[in-house]
From TrEMBL:
This is Trehalose utilization. SUPFAM superfamilies: Class I glutamine amidotransferase-like (SSF52317). InterPro entries: Class_I_gatase-like, ThuA-like. Transmembrane segments: none annotated. Pfam families: ThuA. Residues 30-209 form the ThuA-like domain. It comes from the Bacteria.
Length: 244
């Protein structure tokens, strides 16, 4: 079974996330994984059963790469999108972060577009649908992570959610009052499916350059929680149902 992992981007400890995901994939000996740092390896994507992306501020480069993702989903491929996959970050002259929709065909496939997050803090995650293979048997849980706030770009089926009322002062889209903030959702695209899990922030000492030369406190957030690893294991199984 072939998995294509894209792990790259800004302001996160991508090396840590890549290694943790590869360790989880290695638990299934029938999986063979290709690894890339952008969306340019079209041959590996075309051969894959499952695409996994852990990125931030990394978009497909041009129509050919967008079309390859569309073709992957159209033929029945499954895409596990993690954390900042849907994020575009542009720093304004005033230091506030804009999150423009620069590749709308991409965010339309994903079903959401990142818009901001409050400071990292504990929050409660609720099981929205307990009858799905990813959430069956799970209970509501608390986690300390970035609470991702998004705008929906297409129809999605929310499986886990949280809520948020307040401000995200670092982001242009600052004021929020949301009773249902998607944390995990599924979306059907063609014959394929997207599974998006917003948890999983991680950052080391040197990952905020050039914004900050040194980050004093490394962050692992949801990676410290067994429930997050359980969700990832289930998501890998979801991506390869015939390998379960």
């Amino acid at each position: 079974m072939k998995v294509h992992l894209i792990a790259a981007g800004k302001f996160h400890d991508i090396d840590f996330a890549r290694l943790e995901l590869l360790k989880l994939l290695a638990e299934r000996p029938q999986i063979r994984t290709s690894v890339a740092a952008d969306y340019g390896d079209l041959a590996s994507l075309a051969a894959a059963d499952l695409l996994i992306t852990y990125t931030c501020d990394l978009m497909p480069d041009g129509l050919q790469q967008v079309a390859a993702l569309e073709a992957f989903l159209a033929r029945g491929g499954r895409w596990l999108a993690l954390h900042g996959t849907n994020a575009t970050l542009r720093f304004g002259a005033d230091g506030v972060v804009d999150t423009p929709d620069e590749v709308p065909a991409f965010t339309r496939m994903l079903g959401t577009r990142f818009a901001g997050h409050p400071p990292i803090a504990p929050f409660k995650v609720f099981v929205t649908r307990g009858d799905h293979e990813i959430t069956q048997g799970l209970r509501d849980f608390r986690v300390e992570d970035e609470l991702y706030l998004t705008h929906r770009t297409a129809e999605i089926d929310v499986l886990l959610h949280t809520s948020f009322t307040g401000r995200c002062d670092e982001f242009r889209d600052a004021d929020w009052d949301e009773a249902e903030v998607p944390v995990l959702y599924e979306r059907k695209v063609g014959e394929g499916r997207v599974l998006y899990l917003t948890l999983g922030h991680c950052r080391g000492h040197y990952d905020l350059q050039p914004v900050s030369a040194f980050w004093p406190h490394p962050q692992r957030c949801a990676w410290n929680y067994p429930v997050f690893h359980e969700l990832l294991r289930r998501a890998i199984g979801w991506g390869l149902p015939h390998a379960a």
